[in-house]
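Standup notes
- DV: blocked on the single-chain target, sequence here:
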Amino acid sequence: MHKPNQPLLSVVVPFHNSSKTIEACIESLLASAPEPESLELIFVDNNSADESRNLVNRFSSVTLLDEPTPGAYPARNRGVEAARAPIIAFTDADCTVDSAWCQVILERMKNPELGILIGAVHFPSSASLPMHLLGGWENAKAHWIADHARAQQRIAYCNNMAVRSSLFQSLGPFRNWRRAGDSEFAQRVALRRPEMTLAFDSRLCVVHHEFTRLRQRVLRLRRYQDTNQQIEGFEELSAFQRAAVLGQWLSDRKQG
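- DV (later): unblocked, structure below
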């Protein structure tokens, strides 16, 4: 239940030496808020040695926290502890969000059965054509998994994700892993709170500015695939399911 003077949405963003992109990230989040008082921005400094912290301090509406334990998940957990809203969203300091980002989250989360919402991740206009094609495939895969996959195949990604805060209260924080803590949390929700659903919404968009070339992204995806194996019971999609994802991708491209 929403309380007076409580924000509707808390956004948690970890950062480490992100001075090149962090101002654009903050500005995009502020521009996406339906009303300033509805949004709580929490940026968590994870041992930055550049100007990132000073840049965040320029924005009086942003809460700045510190997390000395190295890693994005400990930093996110620090932000979750401080968040006051019933819905907690996540993105990264090298991402910018669409102007409707906050509104889409608040609209979709009116459904009390929706536990986790994920959306589309795009790449900057300077990225290569193969990068954009791969991004389309990744989005189609996330869309198909949200609609059809078994609990053991669920994925999530903290660069574009919203979670009902009550799930952290009942299931605990992200695992302090190097990667895959978001997918592990999504699987934990699916197995222990099966009444709470996972959804994908293509209107929930971010641009991930880190990647512009295919090789960069493929190497990162291989690491994700390797680290997903530390999730107990995790299952990759079968060849048949990947064919279904291809159908989803072609459908999304036709509609887009």
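- Follow-up: The domain at 9-255 is CATH 3.90.550.10 (Spore Coat Polysaccharide Biosynthesis Protein SpsA; Chain A).
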